[in-house]
Amino acid sequence: MTLLQKEYNDVSYISGPLLFVNAASDLAYNAIVNIKDGSGRIRGGQVIEVSDEHAVIQIFEDTRGLDLATASVSLVEDVARLGVSKDMIGRRFDGLGRPIDGLPNVIADKRLSINGQAMNPASRAKPEEFIQTGISTIDINTSLIRGQKLPIFSGSGLPHNELAAQIARQAKVPGHEGDFAVVFAAMGLTQREVSFFTQEFERTGALARSVLFLNKADDPTVERILTPRMALTTAEYLAFEHGYHVLVILTDLTNYCEALREIGGAREEIPGRRGFPGYMYTDLASLYERAGVIQGKPGSVTQIPILSMPDDDITHPIPDLTGYITEGQIVVDRTLNSKGVFPPINPLPSLSRLMGNGIGKGKTRADHKNVSDQLFAAYANGLDLRKLVAITGEDALTENDKLFLRFADDFENYFIGQGGQDRSIEDSMTVAWGILSKLPQSQLTRIGKDAIDKYYGTKVDEMWKGNRI
């Protein structure tokens, strides 16, 4: 379909990244337009509101130099679209899908709406296939399942970027390594972070199976709103048209929500909690709900959104709303990080609601769930005893209590603190049994006798940093 090149010249008002055009009620919501100024410079934009009086356009670049008298608006596309191709794998793009790796534009097989197509709930398949991240705390205690959306809750200054890069490098669906791809979208990055991710993906070879969308902090705010949608459109195309199992990593959703708040302020909307738009729940759901498995389709889209909680407040609107929509959370812990433990993931407040669907006999290992429960219980007991020791001293503890106290140290140092190791599910289970075997068999109340007889006494010869269990 050829779009008529009608121009709209009655620009009435400019506020931040927003431009208001009168007598443009025939423009469509989400349409892509060009804004031309008096000097001939052309900027891109998207229609975000249409009424009988005016249309509101988000401009993708800065608005400096735009003059109300000479600016004109012309229609480019009826909706924001991205040209997609299988050749996008191994490439780097900016937040609007333009190449930034020095290579030519991708020759698109299709141009798809970045808003995606809603999955029919009746056609969704039950997520029940394990994804191995190579990180013990996730794989054993908070397992990621193909088609799940499992966010990482972090905080300012914590190593969530390093964690994201490690997951992107190591993640796989066992048995489907050749059909696995990563779509990585980063929003509001500093130049140092852009360099880190670029070098990390190239150094480790992860770029060969990845598509990167990198939005910098000094890029226009509006671009930050489009970046995750560009990434998810690419993921859906690779998954449902080429059969890939796609892991989408979105970081940092806090920067995305701040952009929503900034644009809502420019539109003079009535703010909700802490100044964020009242529709932020719906907006986040439009991103998160694009994960899933479709019956009859070989591919899948799995999401790991990463957000940094302001002031480490898990009740802040961003993690709070995210928790309602997604299926659990992985919590990055500041106390563990201060001890030098990496990755500093605390399993106690972490949760994967779909974990039970994808683990166990024939999927991971028959004793997986029981071992996970025992690790939770023993670690929680050890942390309680640490608090008691701070008051009464270690002399007041029984011999069993002292074993649990040492278990907590071993669990943090050897199981959680694996550094940059890539552990298979078998490796992680071996480490878990090596630590549990330091407790008396009578204390392993969450594990069946058959598993204890088979695995109790497991020896782990060489551990991280050359230490031994």
Automatic annotation (TrEMBL):
Residues 12-68 form the ATPase F1/V1/A1 complex alpha/beta subunit N-terminal domain. Keywords: ATP synthesis, Hydrogen ion transport, Hydrolase, Ion transport, Transport. Residues 358-456 form the ATP synthase A/B type C-terminal domain. Coiled coil: none annotated. This is V-type ATP synthase beta chain. One of its GO terms (molecular function) is proton-transporting ATP synthase activity, rotational mechanism. SUPFAM superfamilies: C-terminal domain of alpha and beta subunits of F1 ATP synthase, P-loop containing nucleoside triphosphate hydrolases. One of its GO terms (biological process) is proton motive force-driven plasma membrane ATP synthesis. Residues 134-352 form the ATPase F1/V1/A1 complex alpha/beta subunit nucleotide-binding domain. It comes from Deinococcus irradiatisoli. Produces ATP from ADP in the presence of a proton gradient across the membrane. The V-type beta chain is a regulatory subunit. It comes from the Bacteria.
